[in-house]
Amino acid sequence: MKIFQKQIRLRERRRGFHLITDEIIQVLGQEHGIQTGICQVFIQHTSASLTINENADPTVRQDFEMFFNKHVPENDPDYRHDYEGSDDMPAHLKAALLGSSVMVPVSKGRFALGTWQGIYLCEHRNAGGPRSLVITMWGE
Fold first, then answer.
1. Closest of 119, 139, 29 to residue 6, by C-alpha
2. In CATH, what number is assigned to the domain containing residue 116?
3. DSSP labels, 32-79
4. Could you tell me the pTM of the whole model?
């Protein structure tokens, strides 16, 4: 079994849901040497998250943002953790709901995502800054 790991830094993005699949694939290239296996993509932050969903229609990403803003609102007077602004605690809650990692099968050296699937960076802060990912692949 082979194990490959790489850390990458994503450029800062505005708040919202952003497809990052191609960026990850470009950074990985073929240096990983895994033909069949699993890839874990992990985000090293508590106010942004990752998920896999629709990769073709951008309105899906807009609807994700609308849904989470409705269900996890800013400026809730019951929030105690608001040191970094009104988006602080909602960002942590959204990240907890979506999660900090995704797993993708690797087949024939490539991500085995479905036809309409892509990896999203879910940026929950108005100014979250660059984000760091750890990508770990293992297999044969």
1. 29
2. 2.60.120.460
3. T--SEEEEEEEE--SSEEEEEEE-S-HHHHHHHHHHHHHHS-S--TT-
4. 0.96
Plot region of 8 (φ>0 → left; ψ -120 to 50 → alpha; else → beta): beta
Reduced to 3 states, what is the DSSP secondary structure of residue 96? helix
Longest dimension (CA), the chain: 52
- The Cα–Cα gap between 79 and 92 comes to 11
Contacts of 108 (CB under 8 A, 6+ apart): 35, 36
Question: pLDDT for 10-63, tens place per residue?
Answer: 999 999 999 999 999 999 887 889 999 999 999 999 999 999 999 999 999 999
- State residue 38 phi and psi, 5-degree precision: -135, 145
Structural domain count of the chain:
1
Query: Residue 44's domain spans which residues?
Result: 2-139
